[in-house]
Structure to design on (521 residues):
């Protein structure tokens, strides 16, 4: 995960000298946001039970827009008793790279709530305006679970359109209560929690009492509330994760659905997505049959999402899908393999998904040991030769620049089966580090232009799928070198023309015929 540390503000040293070491902390007068870096981050954070850290870059427009709101919020919160500390780290500074990796910073600006001296880290999920930041952090710095003593308390805390998790106990002590409060503390950024001695105060649940400690999850969809009575911490977390997820997540322009959409895409389990034009003739039939299939596979480790085409352009661009394919059934499995069924009919949803499930079965060798050959061949026929879908830009008709363009469809021929020594950059067009590296790679490519054994190339990761079992991309840019004989090495050296060229010379092989290359794919 990523974190950076820079220097403390003088004002905060004056207000709270016990939190600052004057030997290494300084800042501009009037600033309320502490500036941290790699040299002081751990020491400063360890002295606070609650501190908020923004990871930013000076050139980032979103960070620039957030800065005055963040500073205003810091000024307000500094007057609280005790003060709430807001800090920032320059994630683009190479010296802070280890911090950024530690905090898993893969975009900016990102705010992290750091508790208990750095022992607990949560992502900030609140507003980006000063008043909203203040209100959200006041809530986050209060007890994670609020006691419900009356119907009025319940009405004030539990809304009709949000998820609320309440613990019902005969007394507010004991192992079950402690485990519940620990759960609330851990998940407080994602859910609202309460606890009560009287289940009859709650708006849903039949108004009946409970005879033993119970967790009740109230929600605005599906069965509206679910009770659970296993208070092992792992079991509680699993219950909340499953019960708070709609059977079918709806992706449309309604903002109230967006948190569920975010949760759907952030969940690591396999995903089945049906994209429709909600104004089409057969939309009700599609919705009904898709919901029936989702119920059938409930609890099987698969999430289901129904997307309205106008609201789904982000996923369409990310996955390389086309509007002309709608109605479209799209599957993303745990290994990031993709399968799609374009222009499908409502009655094709269940059979096509069944083909996918059969294919999963055929990919499990431990299961195959226990089935007969006859059943194996029957399953092979049943999967319908379902082929994974791969996102790729078209192969360029001309590719005459010094740094050659590689796309997914040409990766095998240009890199793995080329018989050449290939340096391949994985980049993103928006990445500032990639932009800085571009002229350097150009110089490297020009220096090898008369060497037919060496190829310098680049691949746009935002427009092309890459084999994740071959390449590990912790960030952008990432460079890999494939020798002529097929050896694959990640380049972690300095990003200079001299160092990159020297690495190529040191690790290159003689060119071999493509048919004899050790194919990594």
């Amino acid at each position: 995960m990523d974190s950076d540390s820079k220097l403390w503000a003088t004002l905060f040293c004056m207000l709270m000298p016990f939190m600052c070491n004057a030997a290494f902390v300084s800042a501009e007068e009037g600033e309320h946001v502490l500036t941290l870096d790699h040299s002081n981050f751990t020491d400063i954070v360890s002295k606070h039970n609650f501190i908020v850290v923004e990871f930013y870059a000076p050139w980032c427009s979103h960070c620039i827009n957030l800065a005055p709101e963040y500073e205003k919020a810091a000024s307000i919160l500094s007057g609280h008793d005790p003060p709430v500390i807001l800090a920032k780290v320059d994630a683009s500074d190479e010296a802070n790279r280890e911090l950024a990796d530690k905090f898993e910073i893969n975009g900016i600006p990102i705010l992290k709530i750091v508790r208990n001296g750095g022992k607990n880290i949560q992502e900030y999920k609140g507003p980006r305006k000063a008043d909203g930041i203040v209100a959200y952090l006041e809530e986050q710095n209060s007890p994670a679970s609020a006691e419900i003593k009356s119907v009025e308390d319940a009405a004030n805390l539990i809304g009709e359109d949000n998820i609320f998790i309440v613990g019902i106990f005969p007394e507010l002590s004991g192992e079950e209560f402690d485990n519940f409060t620990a759960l609330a503390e851990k998940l407080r950024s994602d859910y609202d929690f309460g606890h009560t001695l009287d289940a009859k105060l709650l708006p849903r649940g039949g108004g009946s009492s409970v005879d033993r400690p119970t967790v009740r999850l109230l929600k605005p969809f599906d069965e509206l509330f679910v009770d659970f009575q296993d208070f092992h911490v792992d079991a509680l977390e699993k219950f909340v994760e499953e019960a708070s997820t709609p059977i079918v997540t709806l992706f449309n322009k309604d903002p109230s659905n967006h948190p569920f959409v975010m949760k759907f895409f952030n969940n690591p389990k396999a995903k089945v997505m049906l994209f429709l034009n909600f104004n089409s003739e057969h939309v009700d039939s599609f919705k009904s049959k898709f919901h029936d299939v989702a119920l059938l596979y409930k609890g099987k480790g698969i999430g289901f999402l129904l997307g309205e085409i106008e609201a789904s352009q982000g996923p369409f661009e990310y996955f390389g899908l086309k509007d002309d394919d709608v109605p479209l059934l799209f599957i993303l499995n745990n290994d990031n393999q993709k399968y799609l069924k374009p222009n499908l009919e409502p009655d094709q949803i269940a059979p096509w998904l069944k083909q996918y499930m059969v294919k999963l079965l055929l990919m499990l060798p431990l299961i195959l040991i226990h089935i007969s050959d006859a059943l194996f061949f029957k399953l092979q026929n049943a999967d319908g030769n379902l082929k994974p879908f791969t996102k790729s830009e078209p192969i360029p008709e001309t590719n005459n620049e010094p740094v050659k363009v590689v796309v997914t469809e040409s990766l095998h021929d240009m890199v793995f089966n080329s018989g050449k020594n290939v340096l391949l950059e994985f980049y993103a067009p928006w990445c500032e580090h990639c932009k800085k590296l571009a002229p350097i790679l150009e110089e490297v490519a020009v220096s090898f232009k008369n060497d037919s054994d060496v190829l310098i190339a680049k691949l746009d990761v935002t427009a092309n799928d890459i084999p994740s079992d071959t390449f590990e991309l912790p960030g952008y840019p990432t460079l890999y070198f494939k020798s002529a004989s097929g050896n694959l090495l990640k380049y972690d050296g300095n990003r200079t023309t001299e160092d990159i060229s020297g690495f190529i010379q040191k690790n290159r092989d003689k060119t071999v015929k493509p048919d004899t290359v050790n194919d990594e794919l």
